[in-house]
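FORM 12-B: Structure-to-Sequence Request
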């Protein structure tokens, strides 16, 4: 019973390749059922319609657009992280110059770094009195200004240190005795 039903089914759904091969052999029952699409008049075809192709192309382009957006977002995040890291390193280096005495502990505004050939990196320092006697509060801000106006990366570092003038005055008073 199953064989008879199978033969009826195979005779009803025959692929286009099988239909072409059947003109030589005269049989439908032994051919495989691959991509069989029944039509109104009993003739079957294999392949995709134009609508199916357009839908698959639209899905592909939508997925490609989403992937490109993800890649673009990832690249922007990478650039932002790199600039923020460089801002933090430059700020720490400039603060170390203040603490070690290489840079004089005075307020400065929008100074360029000597190693920056393009001139996009600027630093500012604010030196004020701390909460205690002979204590200075130093605030160093480093900014990356690609257009000269709006920073796209910045880092600020605050530090309290003893006034270096106190040590100089103490050393001078000991040598004068």
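FORM 12-B RESPONSE
SEQUENCE OUT:
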């Amino acid at each position: 019973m199953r064989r008879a039903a199978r033969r009826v089914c195979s005779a009803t759904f025959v692929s286009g390749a099988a239909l072409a091969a059947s003109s030589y052999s005269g049989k439908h029952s032994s051919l495989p059922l691959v991509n069989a699409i029944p039509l109104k008049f009993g003739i079957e075809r294999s392949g995709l319609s134009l609508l199916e192709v357009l839908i698959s192309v639209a899905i592909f382009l939508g997925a490609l657009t989403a992937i490109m957006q993800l890649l673009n977002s990832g690249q922007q995040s990478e650039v932002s992280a790199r600039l923020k890291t460089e801002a933090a390193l430059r700020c720490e280096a400039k603060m170390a110059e203040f603490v070690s005495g290489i840079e004089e502990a005075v307020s400065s505004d929008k100074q360029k770094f000597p190693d920056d050939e393009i001139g996009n990196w600027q630093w500012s320092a604010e030196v004020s009195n701390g909460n205690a006697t002979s204590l200075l509060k130093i605030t160093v801000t480093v900014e990356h200004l690609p257009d000269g106006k709006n920073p796209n990366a910045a880092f600020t570092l605050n530090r309290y240190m003893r006034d270096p003038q106190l040590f100089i005055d103490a050393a001078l008073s000991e040598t004068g005795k």
